[in-house]
Amino acid sequence: MILENGVIRTMEPSLPTARGLAIAGEWIAGGVGTHETALASPDRVDVGGRCVVPGFTDSHVHFPTWAMAQHEVRLEGTRSLEEALARVREALAEVRPGRWLLGRGWRSGDWQPRVEPTKERLDELAGETPVALMARDSHSVWLSSAALARANGDLHVPGGVVEVDEHGEPTGVLREESCWHFRDAYIETTDDEYVEAMRTAIKLANSRGVTAVHDKDGWLGAPRFWQRLDSEGALTLRVWQSLPAEKVDDLAALGIASGFGGPRLELGYLKVFMDGTLGSQTARMLDGSGVEITSREAFADLIRRAARAGFPVAVHAIGDQANRDALDAFEETRSDWQPRGLRQRVEHAQLLAPEDVGRFAQLGVATSVQFSHAPSDRDLADRLWAAKTDGAYAFRSLWDSGALLANGSDAPIEELDPLAGIRAGVLRTLDDRPAWHPGQALTVEQALTASTVNPAWLAGDERRRGKLLPGQYADLVVLDRDPVACAVEELPEVRIVATMLGGNWVHNPPPWD
Fold this sequence. Notes:
By secondary structure, this protein is of the alpha/beta class. It contains 18 helices and 22 strands. The chain has helices at residues 34-37, 63-69, 81-92, 119-126, 145-151, 177-186, 191-207, 222-231, 248-254, 296-309, 320-332, 334-337, 359-363, 373-384, 395-401, 418-427, 444-451, 453-458; strands spanning 2-9, 17-24, 27-30, 44-46, 51-54, 56-61, 73-74, 101-106, 131-135, 140-143, 160-164, 170-176, 210-215, 238-244, 265-273, 313-317, 345-348, 366-369, 405-407, 476-479, 496-501, 504-507. Strands 1, 2, 3, 4, 5, 20, 21 and 22 form an eight-stranded mixed β-sheet that branches. It has an eight-stranded parallel β-sheet with strand order 6-13-14-15-16-17-18-19. A six-stranded mixed β-sheet has the order 7-8-9-10-12-11, with helices on both faces. It is globular, with a radius of gyration of 23 Å. The chain starts with a strand and ends in a 6-residue tail after the last strand.
């Protein structure tokens, strides 16, 4: 197959653009020249002046959770408790007796007047129907009394927070480890439900130009869902899968290391949490506030054990203290992991002390960030991190320091939509307001690199994907215009035309109007 009459953005600095692209089987054969046109009866696809870029990777997505969230009540954008309750009331009409009402997306910091949710407000609507509503950051859950009763008092776990009222009774809000313990122990979702939701969600991701994901739902048992889809021929994504950090010794005993798997599904890295989040006010801060989920000492021990097992680590760190502790642990253990070539990463890195910005590049630790979080969190950050936001979502400062940035969505916290993420990274706004801390904006080329080239490198796959070069997989996206050449004001108008994975169209095959 030959794609011709378009702008090919190869993402290779030595040859940034080409007019055509030859594909043989699942691989890129080369730029279009005499040799490629001599291929036996090649199919020709007229790109029609459109732009072709490598397929997008979402470097931080909770894919099974996001897939299920497509069928839950969504509370994003609610501006008051009453508006959130109105959406719950509407959704309850569709719940069959004895079943849960599940939802997500609330953030009490966005509500006016400012008020925290309680089980009593849900009970007024839901009665005996158990209701569980995950917060936007997935670090808190808001439960009805019927839902709380399922736990029979089993709420308190190390690293967890159970909010209580003036009488010492649970309010219905659980945070951090208590939230996750309740979710894992008492909210039942079958494997079939996950797989069916993922089957549809994969097609949606393909329609948005996504050809690879770094999935964070290893704790959920996501590998078995992906395996089912792969065996059915329904896996039209490449998956770099996380595993829970507490499995490190089991993996070592089995002799399974990072990279185990095939071209569509590989075991990648271990996931661990240092702290909470901005929205739940549990980010670990230099002023001593927040929740410490993993100490620096415990994290250093984990890095060493993971290195011996052959796994890199992806560590969630939001607050400035959590990021410093993570960097200190990586520095302390450098001799354990660096000689093994392990590609370590910090997830989010949302608030950094100025003296810590340059340490990522110095240590060779990547930042797995989410460009969309900056404009989404701006109001909350300005309120909760007042006078500190010069060091928040500091994407350009990190880039200029030499740190490797890989962009993701953190879906379902933000929507899985790489073009929206790229716009957020370049414009630093997703509405009509001026850019938030515009000095931290990236160029279009940098945002594209963080969404294509860098994630492939983090997965150890830089020789097979991430660029449109001979010998790499034909994973690509056709856009309706060249995002690099168009005015930045046009970025919100850029659209996905088609998506290809391994030489096969997985969304909207040609011809195109």
